[in-house]
Specification:
about 250 residues; alpha/beta; Rossmann fold; 4-stranded antiparallel beta sheet; binds adenosine-5'-triphosphate; binds magnesium ion
Length: about 250
């Protein structure tokens, strides 16, 4: 997909473009984004000129060999990092120009993250882990509990909400992480190798959960290097050497 509009754009044009994307239900739109790391006298283009468009309600898998730039791209999409070059609109907001503080704010509001290794607080109960993003968002204690319980219910873990991570199975831990990602009602759920640390059967259970969340209207982007996991999504973007090699719809 080529960038439709030439840079540089005026501030007004940039804002108009954001409004247009939002009106068209486009949650993610990158225009020729790059991420370049400088290591001594060497430049590594981890992401090199990616144009990607993802609509509200889509379920997308990003696939590619090790080192092809999947995690780097996810970190850009998830506002954990800023592109070296190019424009990125998240839900109509031009995030590629934002400061770290602004990025942190928009990330907490718009993005739910799920990681390969769960990243839960070891000493905190499932309920407390799910409440955390709401604490950062300044939600009152009573409302936090209510919403965290509802999120745990949505992943069928209501019965385990007082368990700590080491009192849960791998699949249950990942479900806590999914509940935590969803508790803020983000625009998009991002998952980097969410089944990578799970056995095959538990991985399938997590994929079934993702399918249900997708059917409920959530927008999901996941990274995987396993084809059978990617086939659960409805669209697969293949990345190679930091570029989009192929973008295909999965027929059902
Ligand atoms: N912080 C960094 N500094 C320098 N180079 C980096 C950095 N992070 C990633 N890279 C390089 O950028 C390229 C893409 O890395 P990335 O982690 O995005 O790959 P990946 O597709 O997620 O791989 P994997 O499947 O192994 O997780 C690699 O060549 C990597 O060595
Ligand atoms: Mg990776």
């Amino acid at each position: 997909m080529a960038s439709a509009v030439q840079e540089p754009l005026s501030e007004k044009e940039r804002a108009q473009r954001g409004e247009q994307l939002r009106a068209n239900g486009i949650v993610i739109r990158t225009y020729d984004i790059w991420k370049t790391y400088v290591m001594g006298d060497q430049e590594i283009h981890a992401v090199s000129g990616v144009d990607v468009e993802i609509k509200r309600g889509e379920y997308v898998a990003i696939m590619g060999p090790s080192g092809s730039g999947k995690s780097t791209l996810m970190n850009l999409i998830g506002c954990l990092d800023s592109p070296s070059k190019g424009l990125y609109y998240l839900n109509g907001n031009l995030v590629s120009d934002m400061t770290d503080d602004e990025l942190a704010r928009i990330r907490n509001k718009e993005i739910g993250f799920v990681f390969q290794t769960f990243n839960l607080l070891a000493r905190a109960s499932a309920l407390h882990n799910v409440e955390l993003p709401l604490i950062y968002a300044g939600v009152s204690s009573a409302e936090r509990q209510e919403r965290a319980k509802a999120a745990l219910r949505s992943v069928d873990l209501e019965q385990r909400m007082l368990h700590k991570p080491n009192e849960l199975s791998g699949g249950q831990r990942q479900r806590v992480a999914v509940a935590r990602a969803l508790v803020n009602h983000p625009s998009i759920l991002l998952a980097d190798e969410p089944t990578g640390a799970l056995d095959t059967q538990t991985g399938i259970e997590i994929m079934n959960l993702f399918e249900r969340l997708h059917q409920q209207g959530n927008t999901i982007v996941l990274v995987t290097h396993e084809l059978d996991i990617a086939m659960h999504a409805h669209r697969v973007i293949h990345i190679r050497d930091g570029k989009v090699e192929r973008d295909e719809a999965i027929g059902r």
